[in-house]
Amino acid sequence: MSQHAAGGVSLVSLLLLWPLLVAGALVPLRNLRLIRTIALVGALGELAASLWIFARFASTPTDTFQFTERLPWIDAIGASFHVGIDGVSAPFLPLTAFLTVVAVVQSRTAVSHRHKAYLIAVFVFSAASTGVFTALDLALFFVFWELMLVPTFVLIKLWGAGPGRTHAATKYVLAMLMGSVTLLAAFVLLSVNHARVTGSLSFDYLALLDVDVPQGLGTVVFVLMAFSFALKAPLFPLHSWLPPALQEGPIGIGILLAGLKVGAYGFLRLIAPLTPEPFMQWRWVIVLLAVVAILYGGFAALAQPDLRRLIAFAGVSHVGLALLGLSSGNADGISGAVFLLANLGLTSTGLLLIVGFVHQRLGTTDLAALGGVAGRAPALAAFALVYAFAEAALPGTSGFPGEFLALLGAFREFGPFALIALLIVVLAAGYTLIWLQRAFYGPITREPVKHVVDLRPREGALALAVAIAIVVLGLFPSVVLDPAQPSVDQLVERLNGGADALATRP
Known about the structure:
The chain has 21 helices and 2 strands. With 506 residues, the protein is mostly helical. Helix 15 runs antiparallel to helix 17.
């Protein structure tokens, strides 16, 4: 189904182009107030457009792609500009736009120099992320995947808050480039296999879905893509780049990196559908790594003295749960994975906002230097409590539906073994309550805390917007789950086909 704006251009294509147009409009400007105004209007426009597209999609959910557009690009290798959305990708468009708004508004008080360049980098990252979520051509997907690397490096390197920001930015780039090599190799192998079967190269996602991949080649492609996406997710033990990136980088890039789990999305969008047989054959490896990630990330978060590193390890734990749900291969688990990834964008953003507010006021996020903040900043503490409840998956928050469905799907498929994953509930409650108690409650032990100022109107509005989104999705999870259901059912069917093919092999 193709839906276009006036002039025949896909609405998704316009949404892709919009952040780049905003970034371009900022380039010649010099007046800081005008730069901030145009950036905010542009971010809000992106959010409004993405919500409208999602509402249109949700009104007629289907297992086919909507808002599609295909334009010629590199005919010699069968690559085209092909974009569109289905139920798996649709929720991530408004999420990306919402996080862009948060990053733009948050930058007003958090960024002290080169404000224009900072905002341009944020909009480029937003466009690249939207491209990853909408690309239906693997060559196009790879371009957007690589494009995310540039603004991330720049943001960490130039606006990082810690002394190790250069090391953190370099480590991130090297890790992502290593994953890019294996991802590109996997895409080329899939295209060559398409040529073997049909006589022509193609990177088109829908065309590749219709071509069988031999067992041996499928396993190689699965391993190559799994390495790249596990590195980006990140999944244990490939997570070491995330804690320094969040600790040393600015809050804005932390929100985008921790909130948009494009690596885990790669498992949903590419690995499971394109290599269903190897996925079902080797999913036990993903399950083991996911369970280890759940436990390791949770215990590591418990031991962290710094709020930024705590959020990083909590993210590793929740990514593990999302991949465990996906590995179940049933509708409950996969729906839970989709919802979990959407929820991580909100809860990580909320917690990182709290971290940013605390750092701006006290110059540190070390728990040892905090304590008693609630007495001086009750609004700040109240929003921290809401985000902590969502992180701990309290019913009524957006953390609960995805976690419940992922655990339900895992238990249905893996039985008692999946009960180990239930420890994520205990661990999440443990590290959230510990940091709340140490940072916000108890007696004031440090002089700077006595002079903490509560949230300003702009900060309060930003925190409130995130809190409202968390509560709305917690109370009405069908907003995400219902539109995703046809696409989830289609993915379950493909995985079942892969399992059946395995069962019939000698």
